[in-house]
Design a protein that fits this description.
Elements (H helix, E strand, L loop, with lengths): L1 H4 L16 H7 L2 H20 L18 H16 L4 H19 L3 H8 L4 H29 L4 H21 L21 H22 L27 H18 L4 H4 L1 E12 L13 H17 L8 E3 L9 H4 L1 H12 L7 E10 L3 E9 L1 H4 L12 E4 L15 H4 L19 E3 L2 E7 L6 H5 L11 E6 L9 H16 L3 E5 L5 E3 L5 E4 L6 E11 L3 H9 L2 H22 L2
Parallel strand pairs: 1-2, 2-3, 7-8, 8-9
Antiparallel strand pairs: 1-12, 3-4, 4-5, 6-7, 9-10, 10-11
Helix pairs in contact: 3-4, 3-5, 4-5, 4-9, 5-7, 6-7, 7-8, 8-9, 8-20, 9-18, 12-14
Amino acid sequence: MRSLFGHLHAPSGFSLLSGQGLGARAAGRGGGWGWLCLCLLAGWLQAASLAWPLKAWAPPGLAPGEPSGLLQIASLAVLALSLRHARHARQGAWRAWTFALAWLAGSFWWLFVSMHVYGGLAAPLAVLAVLALAAFLALYYALAAWLVCSLAPRSPLGQMIVFAAAWTLAELMRGRWLTGFPWGAGGYAQVDLMASLAPWLGVYGMGAVAAFVACGLAVLPALPGNRRLHRRVPAGPKAFATARAWRQPVLWLLLMGGVLLAIRAPSVAALHTRPAGALSVWLLQGNVPQDEKFVPGKGVALALDWYPAQFAQAVGAQARAPDLVVAPETALPLLPEQLGPDFWEPLLDAIDGQGQGRTAVLLGVPLGSYEAGYTNSAWGIRPADVRGRDGLFPAGRFYRYDKHHLVPFGEFIPPFLRWFTDLMHIPLGDFGRGALVQRPWSLMGQRVAANICYEDLFGEELAAAFADAGQAPTVLVNLSNIGWFGDTVAIDQHLHISRLRAMELGRPMLRATNTGATAVIDHRGQVVAALPRLTRGHLVAEAEGREGLTPYARWASRAGLWPVWGVCLAVLLIAWAVRRGRARP
């Protein structure tokens, strides 16, 4: 343990990088503000690494909307370097909070669009709301930095492990506590660079590896050629320390070898899963303007005309008819009972009248009643469900999925914050919550599992359906409406989130959205077909269902994220115990 965690403390006055009192001198020259500015810039680059936001210019080899794992690691390394220059844990926490504020606000700044453009909230209040959310969530990362500066050992490898554990713990707290909001987690930037790790570790494990490498970039370059680092130097009781220079080449080889393996190793999803048959699909993208979506005579009329016409066209395609047509979240913005027989009879008759046809329909629609409550749901209708039906909606025949993980402020409103939602003019409400695990839809030999909107942000919740391998879904379908956020990078970010879910679980992901990105993603996380964003049309494609379980699906379906929590807490507890032991006379 000593070789890993080394010496954990020393007297004050130590600069974490050079072994001198840089922190005190730099503070006198305004260097502290320089580090804060650098952390702000690095935080914005961390956000940009999730999906490059600038259309006018992008770094070489990086297209707008694409993630960059290298940029994510490099920007996080800047923060780790700033912690090595911090005079004490409080200063490190402040720098991490500044970094996280820029990162998180830069990741979900598009919330401003939904609140101001579509919600009618005054622009200054909308900006303050986004910053307030980012500032609150950034506290988790300030705590992580405080732990790092307080517990980090002298060993570079130990420093890297402690940094990765503390940072991942902050990601977990943000992603799970207070309903969780893990949008923009660092692991999503690694969807391409560390794709081979996704079926093993999931997004939080990928983020931990990235944090480990980032800290290594900050720790290791300081060692060679500096004789002052070869002797014991004074250090603060809550600061990083140095290590023997002979370890540096070995650690660099391990570090670079790990990065190369992450880049070059093939995905194991194909090794742990097997084909379960093909499914031909039409994915619909209505591109209904968000400011008109719930307006009678405008968006409502457009949806009630266009989507049924697409269903009829698919059913009437005969030999080229798809197995499944998917319409996005709230494609039909009214309750089924509000639409009445004049709307439903032609659609159900068309599905029923296919003869030997097989086309089924999956569409987003609100369900429920005033007495029982409402749900944001997906409704699946197969030809067999409507043949010989008794009544308009035969009880228990249609597939139904009710959204489980609701959006705060959008689908449920905390009572003490209703005053805030009253400032906006968005049709918000309190929806009922579906069960965590709901039976998949049996269709053409496949088991199809729906999820709605940002539910695919919670991989551990989707994994719960894989506890019984024999009944695990073979195809995942995400129904979304990102129209609330306009033509922003939110569309690209959500696409990469879905890609990572496909990698983790080894399943294809079908995405039907209102404005984009409507796409077919294979079990390796590759986009095999997609519609242009902000267009109206249907995507004709084929998806290959998969059976079998990835390592991630096995452990996450049984234990959730508790193994990740356990490893992170164990590392920090060991570091604390060793530090406490060294502090004793």
